[in-house]
Amino acid sequence: RLVISQFNPKTIRIVVYAKEKIPIDISFKEEKIIFSKEITSQKKTEQVGKISEKKQDQKTEIKTKVLEIKKQDKKTNNEKEDQGPLYVLDVDKISNAVVLNLSDDLDEKEIAIFETKDQKFRYVVSFKGVLEGNRKSFTFGQNTIVVTQYNPKIVRVVLSTPKEFKLLKKLDNKNLTLGFHAQTSSQSVDKKATQSFNKTLSTR
């Protein structure tokens, strides 16, 4: 609503009423004063404002997600630290392996394994933990398994044998089994077959 009135003998006052603030464009053409609403400018301002708000919301959302992930990672790490170290409570010997009894669950990803070949074939298995008691050594004929505290934070199990072998590893809840796969060697089978063949020849 636009009201034109004589404010005083020398001044004319023009008042524009609106429910909300609107941009007014005032221009002069010849002997005329033109009042118009800046519709285009307002729309552009609104669009720019909406785009800016959207971008700001996206940035805030990304920051929130990153913060949540960091908090979760920190919480997980703190929980692991609060739980304390993993303990090897005892080591039991079975027919062809040893069973490490653990104080807590061990993840497969936490176990490191590598093999070496010099005078003997060896598998070296390591994981973070503390061995209760002293170094433990077990003999299986010519094969041996040694469990030691490699350093203050790492438990190491070394399996060695004169011949190449396949590692037996089984992780079941709080038990880690490490040993030698029971092999029915092809050499033994060939030997029996040769003996049988020779016996057949001698009877002819």
Structure description:
This protein starts with a strand and ends with a helix. Among the domains are: 2-40, no CATH class; 85-183, Immunoglobulin-like, CATH 2.60.40. Helices cover 31% and strands 43% of the residues. Residues 184-194 have low confidence and may be disordered. The strands form 4 sheets. It has a 5-stranded mixed beta sheet with strand order 9-5-6-14-13, with no helix packed on it. The chain has 204 residues and is of the alpha+beta class.
Descriptive keywords:
204 residues, alpha+beta, Immunoglobulin-like, five-stranded mixed sheet, five-stranded antiparallel sheet, 2 helices, 31% helix, rod-shaped
Fold blueprint:
Elements: E1 2-8, E2 11-16, E3 24-29, E4 32-37, H1 39-83, E5 87-93, E6 97-102, E7 112-117, E8 121-128, E9 130-131, E10 136-140, E11 143-151, E12 154-161, E13 167-172, E14 175-180, H2 186-203
Parallel strand pairs: 5-9
Antiparallel strand pairs: 1-2, 3-4, 5-6, 6-14, 7-8, 8-12, 10-11, 11-12, 13-14
**CATH classification class of the domain at 85-183:** Mainly Beta
**Percent helix:** 25-40%
Secondary structure class reads alpha+beta
Helix-strand pattern, N to C? EEEEHEEEEEEEEEEH
Overall geometry comes to rod-shaped
CATH architecture assignment name of the domain at 85-183:
Sandwich
